[in-house]
Amino acid sequence: MIGIPPAIGLRTFCSLDFQIEVETPLILMLRPRSGEKQWVVRESYVVTPYVGVCEYSDIFGNLCQRLIAPCGEFSIQTTCEAMVSTEIESPLDSGFVEIHNLPEETLAFLLPSRYCESDRFGALALEIVAGAQPGYEQAERIGRWVKNSIQYTPGSSNVPISAAEVNTRQEGVCRDLAHLGIALCRSICLPSRFVAGYLYGLHPMDLHAWYEVYVGGRWYSFDPTSGPNSGGRIAIAYGRDAADVSTFHQFGAGDILMNMDVCVEMF
Amino acid sequence: MIGIPPAIGLRTFCSLDFQIEVETPLILMLRPRSGEKQWVVRESYVVTPYVGVCEYSDIFGNLCQRLIAPCGEFSIQTTCEAMVSTEIESPLDSGFVEIHNLPEETLAFLLPSRYCESDRFGALALEIVAGAQPGYEQAERIGRWVKNSIQYTPGSSNVPISAAEVNTRQEGVCRDLAHLGIALCRSICLPSRFVAGYLYGLHPMDLHAWYEVYVGGRWYSFDPTSGPNSGGRIAIAYGRDAADVSTFHQFGAGDILMNMDVCVEMF
Amino acid sequence: MIGIPPAIGLRTFCSLDFQIEVETPLILMLRPRSGEKQWVVRESYVVTPYVGVCEYSDIFGNLCQRLIAPCGEFSIQTTCEAMVSTEIESPLDSGFVEIHNLPEETLAFLLPSRYCESDRFGALALEIVAGAQPGYEQAERIGRWVKNSIQYTPGSSNVPISAAEVNTRQEGVCRDLAHLGIALCRSICLPSRFVAGYLYGLHPMDLHAWYEVYVGGRWYSFDPTSGPNSGGRIAIAYGRDAADVSTFHQFGAGDILMNMDVCVEMF
Amino acid sequence: MIGIPPAIGLRTFCSLDFQIEVETPLILMLRPRSGEKQWVVRESYVVTPYVGVCEYSDIFGNLCQRLIAPCGEFSIQTTCEAMVSTEIESPLDSGFVEIHNLPEETLAFLLPSRYCESDRFGALALEIVAGAQPGYEQAERIGRWVKNSIQYTPGSSNVPISAAEVNTRQEGVCRDLAHLGIALCRSICLPSRFVAGYLYGLHPMDLHAWYEVYVGGRWYSFDPTSGPNSGGRIAIAYGRDAADVSTFHQFGAGDILMNMDVCVEMF
C-alpha cells in the first residue's frame, strides 16, 4: 500500500494561455495528488494575473479549481515533481474479481458512461478475449486489440467521440483509444476507469489519457498508445471517461484557449 | 430544511419475479431513503427465497443492494410508506445561480453524461429559453418545450436512448423525456439530475423517471410526462442519468426478469 | 462480502415518550441500515404527532434524523426486522494488520476520542496482552480482561464516563465497558470502533453498546457484558465512542425524555 | 465563494528531524490544501532519505501522509506558498443558525470530542454570553473571555489536556485555549472546529492552533492567543479537536522527534 519502488522522478510543466473577451467561469483539473502510484514532492499552480481560486474535491476525489477568468490575457502555469514507477506492472495471473466480491468503490466503473457505451460491446469483447484467463489476461487482450485495430493519430479528433464512433472510424487520439478499451472491459464485467495525466516520452508531447482495469484486487494501467509496460506516468484525475475529467471546462461560448504547452522531463 | 407540509402519505408496492438459469449477480436500487422531500415511515424489502444481501451507498448517496440470485424462481418484493408533498413547487422567481456560486455537489450535474449529451444542445436550448428570466423560468420553458415537442409513449423504447436520439425520434418513455430535459438544461449551465421513483396516479402504473433542476439555491422537480405541479412522488435514486440509477442491473446474459408489478396508493 | 448465514430473524421495537415544554431540536439515531452483518427486511419510524423530519448520513455513514419536537406529548416509535448472525465469529488466528497496510477508513479508529483516551492506556494494554499473538488474540485478551475486571452494573452511570474513569471505578454500564475495551485496543494499534444497537436476550432489556476490532482484514465484534460468541445483534450506529452515536441528542435544557421502551424478539 | 482579497502571500517552512531506532509507522498532516480561505500557489514535501509515502484524505478532508520511517536519521521538510487574507473577519451581526437549519456537515462540530467536553460547559458559557446577540457576538464574547481568563504560556503543556483541565489550570498553549473556546461554543449550540496551521508573526514561531465557529452561514476564525483580527493564516488541517489533527502521529514507543523548525514569512 505504501511505496513506489523502483521509482524515478518526473518533472512536469503545463501552461495554458487564454484570451478572454467576457469574464468566463472555468473549472480546471490541473493539480495532481499523491496516491498509491505517485508521490508529489513539489508542485506549483500560478494564475496570472492573480485572481481568487477555489479548490474542491469532486465525487471521484480529484482536486478541481474554480475561478472566473478576467478579461484580457490570462494564463495558468502548473509544475509538478513526483516520484513514480518506471514500469507498468503486468501480472498475467491477476484474476477476475467476481461481481459480488468487488469493493463498492469499483462498482461505478462497471456501468456505461458518456463516451463508453459498454452496453453495446458485449459480443465484440467476448470475441476478443476468447480463450483468455478471466482477469488480467482478458484486459491485456483487449488492450492489445485496441492498439492493433485502432490507428493512434494525434490530432485526429477535436471533440471527444464515443467508443462506438471510435470503433467505426478506426482511428483516434489517446482519449478515444482509452474510451474503447474501457467500454470493452466493462462489457465483460472488468471495472475500468479513465485516467488523465502526463506520460514521459510521449511524442508529440501533450496531456495524455489512458485507463486502468481492476483485477486481482488492484487497479492496473493500460495504454494502447504507448509501448508495452511503459511507466513514467503522473495521473492528474480519474473518472468514468473524459466527460468526468476535462482538464479545463469553460462555461459560456467562444474559443478562449490560445495556446497550451506541456513538458515532461526526468530529474 | 426540515418538513414537507402539506404532506400526504403514499404507499408503494413493487415486485420483481425472476426465472434464473445460472446464478446471477444483481445490483438493485429499490430502497427509498428519507430526504428533504420525503420521510419514509415504513418500508420492507423481501427476497424469496432468502439469500444474503449486502447494501451500500453509491457515489450519489443512493442505497444499492447486491446479491447473487439463485437458480430457479426468485422474487423481490418491496413496499414503502412515505410522507411527501402534494405539489411540485414552481417558484418562477427562483434565479439562476452563477457557476462560481454553485455548491460543489451540484457541479457534477453540469457535465454531459451517458444519455445526456449536453455538449450538443446549446443552440437549441438558447432558442427555447429566448426571453426567459435566467433560472427557474428557463427550466420551466425547457420542461414545457419537451412536453410539447416529444410524444410521451409508454413502452416506445426498451433500451435507453440518448437525448439526441430522443430529439430525433420525437417520442419516448418517461426516461427519454427526462434525458432530453436534462441535456437542454445543462447546456445552459443549469445543474440537472435524473430521478427514478414512484408517481401517484401514473397511468399505466410503472416505475417512473423525472428530473430536478438546481435554481435559486434548491433542487426543483420537472416532469414532462405529467400534468403541471403534480406532486405525489417518492424518489428512489438520483444520478446523472439512467445509467447511474438502473432499478436492477444484471451481470451476465439472458432475460431473467419475468414480471414486474408496481402499485402506488394513498393512505 | 455478501450474506449472513447462518442467520436468524430479529424483530426490535423501540419507543421514546417525550414531554416537551419548549420546542426542542432533536437529532436521533434510530434507523438501522443494512450492511455486511445485517439485512433489514422491514422497518418503521413513526413520530406522533407527525412533524417533518429530515434524514442525513453523518461522517461515519449512520442515518441521523433531525426534527423539532413540538410542545406537549411527543413520541417516537421504531420497529425493525432484520436477518443477522446467530454467533459472533472468533477467529483466533486473525492476525494483526500493520499500520501501513490498514485501509484508510480504519485509521480514524486508531486515535483517541472523547471517552476513549487511548493515549493513556499503552502500559496497561501491553501488560494484558503479554504473550498473545498479535491480532485477534490480543483483542480477545483485552475483551476478557475488561469482562473480568470491570463489574457490569446496568444503571450505574447516567452520563457517559471516560475509559480512564471506568478503569478507576471498576464498574459501569455496557457503554463504559466498551469504552475501556476500545481505549485498550487502540493503545496497541488495533483499530476499534463503538457500536450502538440491539442485543437479543439482554437483561434488563435496553439499547445496548459493544465494540468492534479490526484484525485480519475485517471488523470483529466484542462485548464484555455478554456471554462468549453471543450473536443476535442489530447495529444502529457506528462511531469512535458514545459521543458520536447518541441515540438522541437534545439541544436545549430540561429533562424531556419521560420513558423509553425497548424490546427484541426472534421471528 | 471564490477569492480571498485583500490577500497577501505567505511562505512557510517546516522541518522535522527524527532519530529512529526501530522502523516506525508515521501518519503526518503537513500538506495544506487550497480552500475557500487560502490558495496554495506552490508547495513541496521532501522526505530524506526517500521512502515511499502514501497520501489519503481523512473523514474531514485533510490530506494525510503515511510512511514507515527507516532506521537512522530521517527528516521531513515541507514548504508552502499561499495567498491568504490579511484580516480575520468580525461580522458582529452574523446571526445564530438554528439547529434545524444547520448544514449537515456542521453537525459533527456540535458534539463533545476528546479534548472538548462541551457537555460540561453549558452553565459557564451561558454566564459568559449573557446579554449578547445570538451568533457571532456570543462567539466573540467567548473568545475574549478565554483570552482574558487563560494565560497563554507557550510550552506550558506537552501532552494535550482537555478543556476542563485547561479551565482549572488557567493557563495553556494555543491548542489548550482553542479547546476551551470550542467547548464553550459547542455547549451553546455554536458549531466549532479546531484548526492546525501557521500564523504569520507568531512568537515564538511554531505550528499554531486556533478554531472556527459557524455563524451566519459561514465559518469564522477565532484565536484567543493572538491580537484581534490577525489574519495571515494558513490552515493545514481541520478537526473536532487536536486528537483529529496531530501533525505527526507515531505508532510505537520512544521519543523519535529530535527537532522541529517552523518559519513563516511574507513574499
The amount of helix of chain A comes to 10-25%
Give the number of helices of chain A. 5
User: N-to-C terminal Cα separation of chain A, in Å?
Assistant: 25 Å
Structural class of chain A: alpha+beta
Integer-rounded radius of gyration of chain A? 18 Å
Write down how many β-strands of chain A occur, each being a DSSP E stretch of 2 or more residues: 14
**Chain oligomer state:** homotetramer
**Which shape of chain A, going by the Cα principal axes?**
globular
Going across the biggest sheet of chain A, name each strand in turn. 3-6-1-14
Strand content of chain A: 35-45%
What is the string of SSEs of chain A from the N terminus onward? EEEEEEHHHEHEHEEEEEE
Instruction: Characterize the biggest β-sheet of chain A.
Output: 4 strands, antiparallel
Query: What is the residue-averaged pLDDT of chain A?
Result: 91
Largest interface: C-D, 35 and 35 residues
User: Uncertain regions of chain A: pLDDT < 50 for 5+ in a row?
Assistant: none
Question: Care to give the gist of this entry?
Answer:
Chain A is α+β, with helices and mostly antiparallel strands. Helices cover 17% and strands 37% of the residues of chain A. The relative contact order of chain A is 0.23.
Throw out a few tags for this protein:
homotetramer, 267 residues, alpha+beta, 5 helices, 14 strands
